[in-house]
Amino acid sequence: MTDAVRTHGLFKRYGQQIAVAGVDLVVPAGSFAGLVGPNGAGKTTTLSMITGLLRPDGGTAEIDGFHVWRDPVEVKARIGVLPEGLRLFERLSGRELLTYSGRLRGLPKAEVERRAEELLTVMDLTGAADKLVVDYSTGMRKKIGLASALLHNPSVLFLDEPFEGVDPVSANTLTEVLRGFTASGSTVIFSSHVMDLVERLCDWVSVMNQGHIVAQGPLEQVRGGRRLNEAFLELVGGTGHARGGGLSWLGAGARQPAPAPAPVDEPRQDAQ
Ligand SMILES: Nc1ncnc2c1ncn2[C@@H]1O[C@H](COP(=O)(O)OP(=O)(O)OP(=O)(O)O)[C@@H](O)[C@H]1O
Fold first, then answer.
1. Which of 33, 99, 171, 215 is the most interior residue, by most CB within 10 Å?
2. Interface pTM, i.e. ipTM
3. Looking at beta carbons, which pairs linking 37-42 to residues 24 or more positions away fall under 8 Å?
4. Mind listing the domains of the chain with CATH numbers?
């Protein structure tokens, strides 16, 4: 099987902080892959470098065999990205945003319109298609962002926390769309903190901790007969701070006796 994504020694430092410490990420083509790791593990920085949004300090990244920084046009034609902190053109309507994305990708107008209508229907955004994006809710923004990332039918789709703020019905729809997408041989890579979701959707998992890949491979191999959450906690070493005596004051509030009520002055007879 060919690899949709392959990085070698990917490295990024912010001042003294090493965010990504030499990452060899591999994702086979056709995978539904999850990139997981605790807060600050380096997931977003890694995805930003692979998608050409952030220049690495060292290492290489390839998509479908094309070098991200040497062949940016080849790479950008093949990828769709739903980045963290999604910025959209707020003064366009949802439909205009899709039209703009499709035309920017060089698709013929009629084809863009056909795909945009289908995506709006699937994402349950038809009723909001002519509303300005600035007036969209968080979940609606995710959905129009995803529609825009899918419109040119990318070979590899990168999603940073795609289900955050999305209601369960819409999440189900997104899942079905993404499953169909990978079943046809395309690749999805998404970052998430929700282990149940990763376990349910993914057939490939990469676990990051402190800028390193600490486990990577088929889901069954990474979880090794345990629930993914257990494997994850073992791999990244759960801190156990909450059990270690910290926050002993938290939760005791309800058991504290209520302070005695302040004496209330008798209403004065002459007050009226
Ligand atoms: N622009 C920046 N300037 C300075 N430090 C940064 C910057 N972006 C990220 N970092 C640092 O790099 C490290 C990795 O951050 P990153 O956002 O990649 O982690 P993450 O795994 O995506 O975290 P989360 O799950 O919380 O989104 C963190 O220590 C973070 O503080």
1. 33
2. 0.97
3. 37/191, 37/207, 37/208, 37/209, 37/236, 38/209, 38/236, 39/193, 41/208, 41/209, 41/210, 41/211, 41/236, 42/12, 42/208, 42/210, 42/211, 42/212
4. 3-239 (3.40.50.300)
